[in-house]
Amino acid sequence: MKSIKTIMSLFGLFALCAMFVFALQDAPTDENFEKKIINDYNVYALQVPDYLNFSGEQLPLNNPDILERMDRELHVNTYWQSNGFLMFKRARKYFPIIEPILAKHGVPDDFKYLAVIESGLTNAKSPAGASGVWQIMKGTGREYGLEVNNNVDERYNIELATEVACEYLKKSKEKLGSWTLAAAGYNAGMAGISRRLEEQNVSSYYDLLLGEETGRYVFRIVALKEILSHPDKYGFNFRDKDLYSYIPTYKVEVDTIVSDFTKFAEGFNINYKILKLHNPWLREPHLNNKSRKKYLIDIPHEGYYQTNP
């Protein structure tokens, strides 16, 4: 009996030490963070929040069809973890550019998540030819004042493209009657949504029978809004240093022809690649500019790009 008591005492001491070590492992150090990456992975069924809204317009989650569609997008976007982490990283870099432009135009802040689902906050180009962070078609860009040609394509200028997106969304809201329908109209066109509303004799996006892409569109926006706003709730663990950083720039006015952007960049102590990273709308290594138009070229402040380790 005595030996058993001794063994039990030793076991208790071991368990106490193990609990102490486990507690230390929960400390938010880089080393323990890396251990969690390997050991802490679980998959859970998600619960759709009781209240969700887009631009202040509540989703009718008491409708079982709406609940199921929202549930789908929450699960798909939560458990596509690699894509999710990239959205967190890029949002930190690009939301500071998008947010003040939306605010200036009186467009709800929630529309920044529309840009997330449109392009993943990259300068993507769709098979149909929609381009840039806001996926603007060539004709739409020109209609709203963007220059679009082989030499300059301002759909890739995130600031100018956001201005155009705001103008389009405001017009869509005025025509269709709600921000939710304006978002759907961004995907399917104002005329397309207006025609469907009339054909089906309804007034809400949530009552429309739509094709797969537009039918999921607003739910995807709301899912990304919910996940990006509550990372801990959906199992995304990261530190501030894991996110991408917004790199401050200053603008240089150019109203002449630029024959060689490599030499132009070197004049600001950067290379051509860095110039293009901040000005993807400059589509060729030179600027034609026969009309002497004034362009604003972004130049990063010194010290942000180091080529040596």
From TrEMBL:
A Pfam family it matches: SLT
Domain Transglycosylase SLT: 101-201
UniProt-listed CDD domains: MltD-like
Alphabetic keyword roster: Signal
SUPFAM superfamilies: Lysozyme-like
Signal peptide: 1-23
Gene3D superfamilies: 1.10.530.10
Top-level taxonomic group: Bacteria
Family statement drawn from the similarity comment of this UniProt entry: Belongs to the transglycosylase Slt family.
Cross-referenced PANTHER family: MEMBRANE-BOUND LYTIC MUREIN TRANSGLYCOSYLASE C (PTHR37423:SF2), SOLUBLE LYTIC MUREIN TRANSGLYCOSYLASE-RELATED (PTHR37423)
Name of the protein in question: Lytic transglycosylase domain-containing protein
Organism for this UniProt entry: Lacinutrix iliipiscaria
